[in-house]
């Protein structure tokens, strides 16, 4: 991996330069002001920074990056700071500059005839969704953190969410990018083209790179017709295998009208019911539940199909939302799982992907291995069964036992990730590597893959100044 330049300027000199670029109010250097930017959402990673810079335009981002490059100072790009892998948190040395992109929050253009929206990287995901809805369009990326997370971060981690089943990850939703390179140069690739066969598709270098190759400042994103009606249902199933069979059956009948299919374990639901006020269990207790959403399907057709599944025993019980408010309550049960876990305490989290057909195999293998190694372990499993992405989080029910259990994370990770790898899966489905899995990935990626990634990093960021310590 490239090494950071060793020449270290006086902090005051660089800060004065940055103040000259963005203004004194947009350079934070007091510890109390910096604090929110150097701690990750989970409270797991805490770092330090020379300062936090908040540019208001691409030109200011470019000038800041150039100034840091000339000074040999590392840059940590940061969006909404919702990373679950420490990808936007600086190290503890305090030498890096945090580049906060929240002021780049403009919707630059909406082209309804081309079904695209062009936005700056600091727009929250919710703001992009709202701008699309205002012109009767859908931007389908949907995450629990959508009110806080920013498009630049979504792009940098290739975020997934609940509608990947129908629309794909962020990568599939992106047509063009604008990126400030580690040199301070700007690559303007803001083209809303669905076909452009003129060499390497450079945008894919930066999507999923977690800010290690450059700073995404704007993007052209795909829009879709806004569904006129949606049918949301909560269904009880006996096993993960039954959930996968139900998914297969639903896709064969409804195809693209099936836009979400989420799996929730009883342990996950219990945490929400315990820690999130106003939460209510839909239906009877079941070891596993599915939250399914159908868009622009005839509600009567969905209900008839579900009735047949109840008769056949494929579904044990079910609730169909009778209103938008009821649908929102069902979705809140799913979307509040991470928040409920955070309230409960720190857990060992995994964001993994396996072929959809092997979901039940993974859960059986991982559950068995962990129960044997750590008797009494609590498994909180949930996720996007429609695309094979599971969030598999582990803790002990008692807080005192859990503190000791957390020291076993290397062993826990090895058991989980080996089970994933044995099924040709991935140890990071949608959260990225950050600093959490930077070393762990070396066990599962081939030397050829790692060498290719390091070669790309060396060419674009030879001095290793872009988000050092992440991914590689």
TrEMBL record:
Residues 45-226 form the FAD-binding PCMH-type domain. Keywords: FAD, Flavoprotein. Pfam families: FAD-oxidase_C, FAD_binding_4. Gene3D superfamilies: 3.30.465.10, 3.30.70.2190, 3.30.70.2740, Uridine Diphospho-n-acetylenolpyruvylglucosamine Reductase, domain 2, Vanillyl-alcohol Oxidase, Chain A, domain 4. It comes from the Bacteria. Transmembrane segments: none annotated. SUPFAM superfamilies: FAD-binding/transporter-associated domain-like (SSF56176), FAD-linked oxidases, C-terminal domain (SSF55103). Belongs to the FAD-binding oxidoreductase/transferase type 4 family. This is FAD-binding oxidoreductase.
């Amino acid at each position: 991996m490239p090494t950071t330049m060793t020449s270290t300027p006086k902090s005051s000199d660089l800060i004065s330069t940055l103040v000259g670029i963005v203004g004194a109010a947009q350079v934070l250097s007091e510890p109390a002001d910096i604090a929110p930017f150097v701690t990750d959402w989970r409270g797991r990673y805490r770092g330090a920074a020379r300062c936090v810079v908040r540019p208001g335009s691409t030109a200011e981002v470019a000038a800041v990056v150039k100034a840091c490059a000339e000074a040999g100072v590392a840059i940590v790009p940061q969006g909404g700071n919702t990373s679950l892998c420490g990808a936007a948190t600086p190290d503890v040395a305090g030498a890096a500059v945090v580049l906060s992109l929240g002021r780049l929050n403009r919707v630059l253009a909406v082209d309804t005839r081309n079904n695209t929206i062009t936005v700056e990287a600091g727009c929250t995901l919710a703001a992009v969704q709202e701008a699309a809805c205002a012109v009767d369009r859908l931007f389908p990326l949907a995450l629990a953190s959508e009110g806080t997370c920013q498009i630049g971060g979504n792009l940098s981690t290739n975020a997934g969410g609940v509608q990947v089943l129908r629309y794909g990850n962020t990568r599939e939703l992106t047509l063009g990018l604008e990126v400030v390179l580690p040199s301070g140069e700007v690559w303007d690739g803001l083209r809303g083209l669905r076909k452009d066969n003129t060499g390497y598709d450079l945008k894919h270098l930066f999507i999923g790179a977690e800010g290690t190759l450059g700073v995404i400042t704007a993007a052209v994103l795909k829009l879709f017709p806004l569904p006129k009606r949606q049918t949301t249902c909560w269904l009880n199933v006996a096993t993960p295998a039954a959930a996968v069979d139900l998914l297969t059956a639903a896709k064969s009948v409804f195809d693209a009208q099936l836009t979400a299919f989420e799996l929730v374990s009883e342990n996950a639901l219990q945490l929400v019911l315990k820690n999130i006020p106003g939460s209510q269990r839909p239906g009877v207790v079941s070891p596993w539940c599915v939250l399914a959403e159908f868009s622009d399907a005839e509600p009567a057709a969905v209900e008839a199909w579900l009735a047949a599944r109840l008769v056949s025993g494929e579904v044990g019980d079910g609730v169909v939302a009778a209103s938008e408010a009821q649908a929102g309550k069902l979705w809140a049960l799913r979307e509040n799982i991470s928040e409920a876990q955070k309230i409960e305490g720190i857990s060992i989290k995994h964001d993994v992907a396996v072929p959809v057909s092997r979901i039940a195999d993974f859960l059986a293998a991982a559950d068995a291995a962990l129960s044997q190694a750590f008797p009494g372990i609590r498994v909180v499993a949930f996720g996007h069964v429609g695309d094979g992405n599971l969030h598999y989080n582990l803790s002990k029910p008692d807080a005192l036992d859990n503190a000791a259990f957390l020291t076993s994370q290397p062993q826990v990770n090895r058991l989980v990730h080996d089970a994933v790898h044995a099924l040709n899966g991935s140890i990071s489905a949608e959260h990225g590597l950050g600093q959490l899995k930077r070393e762990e990935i070396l066990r599962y990626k081939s030397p050829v893959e790692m060498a290719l990634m390091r070669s790309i990093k060396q060419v674009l960021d030879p001095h290793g100044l872009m988000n050092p310590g992440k991914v590689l």
